[in-house]
Structure formats: structure tokens, C-alpha cells
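User: Last request for today: this protein with S-adenosyl-L-homocysteine, please.
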Amino acid sequence: MCGEGVSDNNPLHATPRERAEIASEAALPERLARAITLAGPIPLSQFMGAANTHYYATRDPLGARGDFTTAPEISQMFGELVGLWLADLWDRAGRPATRYVELGPGRGTLAADALRAMARAGLEPPVHFVETSPVLREIQRESHPDAEWHDSLESLPKGGPLMLVANEFFDALPVRQFIDGIERRVALTPAGLAFDRDGEVVEDSPVRDEAAREIGALLDERGGVALVIDYGHASTSPGETLQAVRGHAFAPLLHKPGEQDLTAHVDFEALATQAAVGDVRVTPLVAQGEWLKRLGIGVRAAALTDASPERAADLAAAVQRLTGKSAMGELFKVIAFHSTDWPAPAGFE
Ligand code: SAH
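Assistant: Here's the final one, the structure of the complex with S-adenosyl-L-homocysteine:
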């Protein structure tokens, strides 16, 4: 990663001052318009980076009253199964001293459910959150008062294996789009912001690639495992996947920059290629529904239903949302990277 003061439009590299400026009260559309007027059309990746940094820095976007709902917000079962999966792996790795690191923890719900399940298995690691949003950091602090927060992976304490988790983190990192080999830019027209060209789109994401490379390098150097869950595809392929979501509905991409969530499908082939540094192993890619079933979501739902029969319908609906083919079960996928001195993680074979 670049040092302090280096500006390369990568939100993961923004200095605290740059982030404050990006998230400042000055309306983002005006600042974008000024930048384009001064310097010409800006790359879509720069637009997406600025829009999402502002978006996350200024609100809690999750849940029924927000813009979208993630798996851990649907049911405690999701985080609990992630926690049991980590505890099993840690146990088979010989119970080393380790740290729990989550990238983009949102409300901290996944971490709370996972850490509760891990503690029951005797695993109580120190907690580290990589989170750039001051609003979400405050919400995370309520349920995780002892966590440590980081702007990037660079400032993690040195030494010892890591257990990294990233749910719906990579999809929010900026993508580039190319049309006929030329990078797509955002221009200013009398009618407002508009793309400078249209046609068959090919996407890539140097920012995601770099984050995956960094995770791979950390695992190679220190040992441990990284679990990545996101929506996306198994192999690099052409096509436009960028989408804007506001109030649980799709919105036009360039409308209301910084006020709607911009995400794009994660190219898991690219992530795996970048993370496979040194001796790091990559698991097969598995659909979220299949992975959760293999980890025993059915058994967990039955146990919760036994304990609270009045919740039976809600629990069945949650299982359906998390695993159903037309819900999150098929589009969302799970992959793990691990050092060779840790065993093969459960649920992938
Ligand atoms: N993992 C959570 C939240 C997903 S939303 C869940 O599943 O519910 C995306 C999260 O990533 C938010 O916490 C957002 O603030 C954070 N985020 C987005 N871009 C980031 C960046 N460049 N660096 C660190 N965190 C980022």
C-alpha cells in the first residue's frame, strides 16, 4: 500500500484528511462537477470510489429502513455458522494464538454472532475491524467496545496467524469499465452526469486485486485463513455488472452520487489469482446456499425452532433467504484462502 499523503484515487489508500474531505458536508455532486469541469471526464472507478466513500461515511445503509440487507442482518444463523467454521479450523490448526479481523463489518452483526459461537468453542481472539466509515465505526463500537479499528490492513499488529472475514466488502470496492479497450469515464453534460461512451463493457478492479494480494501476502507471511463471501461469478468474463441500489430498489447508476450504494459482481477468479501468493491455498468456490447447508444450517434452524417454537416461520423464511436459489443461495458465493500450515477448511469439498 502507498504511504500517507499519496493520492491515487484508491479509497483504501486515502489519508485521514482526504477521507474527511471526501465525506465532508460539501455536496458530492457539486464537487464531482467541479472536478470534471477543471480536469475533464473522470474514470468511472474514481466516480465509484468517491461516491461509495461518501455514501458509507455518512449513514448506516443496512436493514429494512436502509438501502439493502446483508446475510448477517437476515439471521443470527449466518454469523454463528461462520464462527463455528472458524473455531473448527482453529481447533484443527492446533489452537494457536490468533486474531479475528473483519473487513467492512457494517453494523458488527456478523462479528457479534461469530464471536459468540467461537467463545462457546473456547476461541476468544482479539478483534480488529478494517472500517473507513466513522458512522459505522460508532455502531460497531456499541457491540464491540474492545475492538481495534484500522483504516487498512497495514496497521494490524505484527506477528501471529490471522482469521480474516469479508462479507459484502469486495463488491463495494471500485471497478473500472472498458469499452472497445478504452476506459469508460463520467462526463458532465447540460443534463447532468453521463457516461462518455456506451457499448459492450468489460470490468476489472485493480483496487480489489490489490486488497486480495495483500490478504494473500499476510497469510503467506503469518499463517491463517481468509473467508470471502460476496455476490459474483466464478470466472473472469465480459459484461456490465455495476448496479446502484437505494431503498431496496435499483436506481440509475449516475443519479444521486453518494446517496445510493454502488456495487459490482466480484470476479472470484481474479481474487483467487491475486490471493494465491507464495504457499497460500485457495479452496474451490462454493455457492452460499450449498456452503451453509454443508455447515449444518438445517440443524441450527431446527435447534432454534425447538427452543422457540413461535419463531418457526421466521427461521424457515431466513433459511430460505440465505440458501434459496432465487434468493441469496446461488448468486452469493464463498471462497477461502489459507496458509499451508492450516488445515483445509470445512464446507468446500
Ligand atoms: N459486512 C457487513 C457490511 C457490508 S456493507 C455486512 O455483511 O452486513 C460494506 C462495508 O464495507 C461497510 O461497513 C463499509 O463502510 C465498508 N467499506 C466500504 N468501503 C471500504 C473501504 N474502502 N475500506 C474499508 N471499509 C470499507
